[in-house]
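Protein Record: Sequence and Backbone Structure Tokens
======================================================
Tokens: labelled as protein backbone structure tokens, with as many entries as the chain has residues.
Task: work out the structure tokens from the sequence, keeping to the layout shown below.
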Amino acid sequence: QVQLVESGGGLVQPGGSLRLSCAASTNIFSINRMGWYRQAPGKQRELVAITTGGGSTDYADAVKGRFTISRDGAKNTVNLQLNSLKPEDTAVYYCYALIIRATGTHSTFWGQGTQVTVSS
């Protein structure tokens, strides 16, 4: 079992910034993919950003150019820098991890979530 603990959420004004962190209970380089999803009230959970062990990254169109995902192996964390925040970014942000085994089976792990609220 991989445990993921998010931190860094809060209340910010439009145009402001936040930095979210996700601490993993294992070496993050043993995890094939890590990333962030978010879920706004009344909406389905959606992918925000993802990074692979090979270093590739991908972002939802809505956040490209504003959010940056990064990994810190020394701290076993994955981070999400959120800049130029908009009210529509308001959501609970969830850390995500995926392990793909040699057998082809997948295991998915989720953090408990951290609230990001963008409001004036």
